[in-house]
Amino acid sequence: MLEMRPDCERCGTDLPAEQPGAFICSFECTFCASCAEDMDDQCPNCGGELMDRPTRAKRLHDKFPPSTTRKFKG
Protein backbone atom coordinates (compact mmCIF):
# COMPACT_ATOMS: atom_id res chain seq x y z
CA MET A 1 0.00 0.00 0.00
CA LEU A 2 1.31 3.47 -0.85
CA GLU A 3 2.44 5.66 2.02
CA MET A 4 0.68 8.72 0.52
CA ARG A 5 3.13 11.33 1.84
CA PRO A 6 1.49 14.67 2.71
CA ASP A 7 3.85 17.15 1.06
CA CYS A 8 6.21 17.94 -1.79
CA GLU A 9 9.79 17.11 -0.80
CA ARG A 10 11.10 20.05 -2.84
CA CYS A 11 8.79 22.98 -2.01
CA GLY A 12 6.63 21.78 0.89
CA THR A 13 3.28 22.15 -0.90
CA ASP A 14 0.51 20.16 0.78
CA LEU A 15 -0.51 17.09 -1.24
CA PRO A 16 -3.70 15.63 0.28
CA ALA A 17 -4.11 11.92 -0.47
CA GLU A 18 -7.63 12.40 -1.82
CA GLN A 19 -6.60 15.02 -4.41
CA PRO A 20 -4.73 14.63 -7.69
CA GLY A 21 -1.52 16.51 -8.40
CA ALA A 22 1.16 14.46 -6.66
CA PHE A 23 3.95 12.62 -8.46
CA ILE A 24 5.98 9.71 -7.05
CA CYS A 25 8.89 7.48 -8.04
CA SER A 26 9.22 3.76 -7.25
CA PHE A 27 10.63 4.67 -3.80
CA GLU A 28 7.62 6.95 -3.13
CA CYS A 29 9.65 10.16 -3.20
CA THR A 30 6.82 12.67 -3.57
CA PHE A 31 6.63 15.96 -5.46
CA CYS A 32 3.94 18.40 -6.61
CA ALA A 33 3.14 18.70 -10.32
CA SER A 34 5.03 21.98 -10.69
CA CYS A 35 8.25 20.62 -9.17
CA ALA A 36 7.97 17.34 -11.09
CA GLU A 37 7.68 19.31 -14.34
CA ASP A 38 10.70 21.46 -13.40
CA MET A 39 12.69 18.24 -12.85
CA ASP A 40 11.59 16.77 -16.22
CA ASP A 41 9.67 14.02 -14.36
CA GLN A 42 12.90 12.51 -13.01
CA CYS A 43 13.39 11.96 -9.27
CA PRO A 44 16.39 13.92 -7.96
CA ASN A 45 16.88 11.39 -5.16
CA CYS A 46 17.13 8.12 -7.09
CA GLY A 47 16.99 9.12 -10.76
CA GLY A 48 13.74 7.19 -11.26
CA GLU A 49 10.75 8.28 -13.30
CA LEU A 50 8.11 10.39 -11.56
CA MET A 51 4.57 9.19 -12.23
CA ASP A 52 1.11 10.42 -11.25
CA ARG A 53 0.28 9.22 -7.75
CA PRO A 54 -3.20 7.68 -7.51
CA THR A 55 -5.64 9.25 -5.08
CA ARG A 56 -7.10 7.61 -1.97
CA ALA A 57 -10.79 8.24 -1.30
CA LYS A 58 -11.40 10.28 1.85
CA ARG A 59 -13.80 7.59 3.11
CA LEU A 60 -10.86 5.16 3.32
CA HIS A 61 -8.60 7.41 5.42
CA ASP A 62 -9.80 5.99 8.76
CA LYS A 63 -9.09 2.40 7.75
CA PHE A 64 -6.02 3.17 5.59
CA PRO A 65 -4.60 6.49 6.83
CA PRO A 66 -2.20 8.45 4.65
CA SER A 67 1.17 9.35 6.16
CA THR A 68 1.47 12.47 8.32
CA THR A 69 5.28 12.51 8.23
CA ARG A 70 6.43 15.52 6.22
CA LYS A 71 9.57 15.18 4.06
CA PHE A 72 10.17 18.85 3.11
CA LYS A 73 13.45 19.98 4.64
CA GLY A 74 13.03 23.69 3.91
Give your account of this protein's structure:
It holds the Pfam family DUF1272. This is DUF1272 domain-containing protein. The protein has 74 residues and is mostly loops. The chain has a single domain (1-68), classed as Herpes Virus-1. The protein is 8% helix and 11% strand. It is built from one helix and three strands; from the N terminus they run ββαβ.
Structure keywords:
74 residues; little secondary structure; Herpes Virus-1; 3-stranded antiparallel sheet; 1 helix; globular
Protein topology:
Layout: E1 22-24, E2 30-32, H1 33-38, E3 51-52
Antiparallel strand pairs: 1-2, 1-3
Top-tier CATH class:
Alpha Beta
**Spatial order of the strands in the main sheet?**
2-1-3
Radius of gyration: 12 Å
Biggest pleated sheet = 3 strands, antiparallel
Shape: globular
Count of DSSP H/I helices: 1
Strand content: 5-15%
Q: Report the helical percentage.
A: under 10%
What distance lies between the first and last C-alpha atoms, to the nearest angstrom? 27 Å
Might you state the CATH topology name? Herpes Virus-1
- The name of the CATH architecture is 2-Layer Sandwich
Mean pLDDT: 96
- DSSP E strands, number: 3
Question: Which sequence of SSEs, written as H and E, runs from N to C?
Answer: EEHE
* Count of the domains: 1
Low-confidence stretches: none
Class from helix and strand fractions: little secondary structure
Quick description:
The protein is low in regular secondary structure. The chain has one helix at residues 33-38, and strands at 22-24, 30-32, 51-52.
